[in-house]
Specification:
heterodimer; A: mainly beta; about 0% helix; globular; B: mainly beta; seven-stranded mixed β-sheet
């Protein structure tokens, strides 16, 4: 079974600075998807960014980018020019790309609580 | 486009009462998921529907929980009777296809059972 580990329960960053959230995962599969979801105090789970394992290029969405290291099974999220609105719980998630079985399941990490200081 | 809609947003009930949570997936999406989030266990998948058919309910904690999807635009999660340990945030999510990668979540229902 796949596992997702977020080793940083909490992180803090100064407004306008850059912060990197860590995520590692364990899988024997070669093709899969990785996601970062943001959960602000409103509780809404918001998709931040996704990465397809077969793509070597790191995904980027405005101020959010990932460092995907497939061999190391690492998928970190970098937030540049941090804003107060970035304060939230961030979850890393894994999903197999193969059809069939239970491969529709998302496996989540425990989350990292990000605080943005003004 | 409207996202996944859940109601109610908050529910407070007393132990033993029946609770029904509702979800409307994104139009055109044919896969629907119910999750539960607690501090202790994080996010857990409870049940998954594809084309209105329950595919995997192995995450449903016990017989007190049941879920239905009578049509493509509506699903319910029912707890009867409710217990304090059911207190959690319940999320509904939908995807375009059974093996489409991205799940889109609703705002969640915070359930408190006294």
């Amino acid at each position: 079974a796949q596992t997702v580990t977020q080793s940083q329960p909490e992180m803090s960053v100064q407004e306008a600075e850059t912060v990197t959230l860590s995520c590692t995962y364990d899988t024997s599969e070669s093709d899969y998807y990785l996601f970062w979801y943001k959960q602000p105090p409103s509780r809404q789970m918001i998709l931040v960014i996704r990465q397809e394992a077969y793509k070597q290029q790191n995904a980027t969405e405005n101020r959010f980018s990932v460092n995907f290291q497939k061999a190391a099974k690492s998928f970190s999220l970098k937030i540049s020019d941090s804003q107060l609105g970035d304060a939230a719980m961030y979850f890393c998630a894994y999903r197999s790309a193969w059809g069939g079985g239970s491969n529709y399941k998302l496996t989540f990490g425990k989350g990292t609580l990000l605080t943005v200081n003004p | 486009d409207a996202g996944v809609i859940q109601s109610p947003r908050h529910e407070v009930t007393e132990m033993g009462q029946e609770v029904t949570l509702r979800c409307k997936p994104i139009s055109g999406h044919n896969s629907l998921f119910w999750y539960r989030q607690t501090m202790m266990r994080g996010l857990e998948l409870l049940i998954y529907f594809n084309n209105n058919v329950p595919i995997d309910d192995s995450g449903m904690p016990e017989d007190r929980f049941s879920a239905k999807m009578p049509n493509a635009s509506f699903s319910t999660l029912k707890i009867q009777p409710s217990e304090p340990r059911d207190s959690a945030v319940y999320f509904c999510a939908s995807t375009l296809g059974q093996f489409t990668d991205t799940q889109y979540f609703g705002p969640g229902t915070r359930l408190t059972v006294l």
